[in-house]
């Protein structure tokens, strides 16, 4: 009775103490759960490290490109606590290369030596720099066969849901992504080559985004003090400055090409010696004429609020008949209310039912004179200019978790 009387007489202090103790208990429980996740992942990794290898075999080598500035400067600590122990226990010889400034990963890829696997530890920006630097190399054909692992450490990790099971727990995301690298299951992903008139090409795995929704999304963080209303407020304020926010663009595109059938693992029988000699003599005296057909470009005028050019990497296990990229354009007849509503819940990879969709193997964007603004290429900002976008089908190989592959397969059925 005395205790309850004291709590009632000091209800403000009691309420504050309950809140502090509740938060402290929740924090301790979260730390304990993270510790259990790390322990479970390390036990799995230890089994890989205990596997015997032949005397002439060597340990697998991995080059890790780590961006310490990702996740507000927490990436290095996250990697050392959650990913590095798993790789060490599995017997992987890792070389960690840390970037010091934006764009350095591109330059580092120019000097990277051959490795068994390449691991990118960072966010969308780090991954795009590594892919761009890799495919700009003169010998990129050799290095493009190196499997790539992606450990999501950034604020934005657009490719991670395509490769790993997504959860709200960052420790689980990192450990599961690291374990998928050890298990060795890979999948080929398409790449977009984006080239302007002067600069070197930039390469993207998800897509290019341009329009009103992109511009407003870049300003949402300014309204942080509005809490959950910041997105709606940003879209409303943008309509007060200018309306309508319609963009005119000329899109030229090539028809998609058929995706070749998967090659059979069994090689066809080799012809006998006489047939090979006859075939070589025939090709020598009468070589086949190589006729290059001119590319047939089609042109379309679009008036849109948002334009997005994307790959099929959101669901990489889905069987498609064509090697193609998707050109999606939102309609230009949005009202202010629809613009605010759609923008508040807008996913740039899922467009509305009324959007215009074109399938192509390559496209060119011709902006009107005086047009300004920025593109988002894999969530990285680039100045808007006329560009040519080409699809490089199944260009790179990435590690994928078996659970996520099964989940994506079940969605396509």
From TrEMBL:
The compartments listed are:
Mitochondrion inner membrane; Mitochondrion intermembrane space
Query: Which domain of life does the protein's organism represent?
Result: Eukaryota
Q: Name one GO cellular component term.
A: mitochondrial inner membrane
BP terms from Gene Ontology: ceramide biosynthetic process; glycerolipid metabolic process; sphingosine biosynthetic process
> Which cofactors does this gene product need?
Mg(2+)
Q: What is its main location?
A: mitochondrion
| GO molecular function per UniProt | acylglycerol kinase activity; ATP binding; ATP-dependent diacylglycerol kinase activity; ceramide kinase activity
For this chain, the family text in UniProt reads:
Belongs to the AGK family.
List the protein's name. Answer: Acylglycerol kinase, mitochondrial
């Amino acid at each position: 009775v005395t205790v309850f009387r004291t709590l009632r007489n000091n209800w403000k202090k009691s309420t504050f103490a309950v809140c502090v103790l509740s938060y402290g208990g929740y924090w301790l429980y979260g730390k304990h759960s993270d510790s259990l996740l790390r322990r479970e992942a390390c036990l799995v990794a230890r089994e890989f490290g205990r596997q015997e290898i032949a005397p002439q075999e060597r340990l697998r080598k991995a080059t890790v490109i780590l961006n310490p500035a990702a996740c507000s400067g927490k990436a290095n600590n996250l990697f050392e606590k959650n990913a590095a122990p798993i790789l060490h226990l599995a017997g992987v010889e890792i070389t960690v290369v840390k970037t010091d400034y934006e764009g350095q990963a591109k330059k580092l890829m120019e000097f990277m030596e051959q490795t068994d696997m390449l691991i990118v530890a960072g966010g969308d920006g780090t991954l795009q720099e590594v892919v761009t630097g890799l495919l700009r190399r003169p010998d990129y054909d050799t290095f493009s066969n190196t499997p790539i692992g992606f450990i999501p450490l950034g604020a934005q990790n657009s490719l991670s849901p395509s490769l790993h099971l997504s959860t709200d727990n960052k420790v689980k995301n990192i450990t599961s992504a690291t374990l998928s690298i050890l298990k060795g299951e890979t999948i080929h992903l398409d790449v977009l080559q984006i080239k302007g008139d002067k600069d070197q090409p930039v390469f993207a795995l998800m897509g290019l985004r341009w329009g009103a929704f992109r511009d407003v999304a870049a300003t949402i963080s300014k309204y942080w003090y509005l809490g959950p209303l910041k997105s709606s407020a940003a879209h409303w304020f943008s309509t007060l400055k200018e309306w309508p926010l319609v963009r005119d663009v000329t899109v030229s595109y090539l028809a998609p090409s058929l995706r070749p059938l998967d090659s059979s693992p069994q090689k066809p029988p080799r012809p006998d010696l006489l047939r090979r000699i006859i075939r070589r003599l025939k090709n020598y005296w009468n070589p086949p004429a190589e006729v290059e057909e001119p590319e047939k470009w089609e042109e379309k005028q679009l008036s849109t609020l948002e334009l997005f050019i994307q790959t099929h990497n959101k669901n990489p296990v889905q069987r498609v008949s064509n090697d193609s990229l998707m050109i999606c354009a939102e309609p230009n007849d949005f009202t202010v209310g629809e613009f605010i509503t759609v923008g508040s819940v807008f996913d740039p990879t899922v467009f509305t039912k009324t959007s215009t969709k074109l399938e192509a193997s390559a496209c060119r964007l011709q902006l009107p004179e005086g047009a300004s603004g920025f593109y988002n290429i894999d969530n990285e900002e680039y100045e808007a200019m006329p560009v040519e976008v080409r699809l490089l089908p199944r260009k790179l190989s990435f590690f994928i978790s078996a659970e996520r592959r099964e989940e994506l397969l079940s969605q396509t059925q």
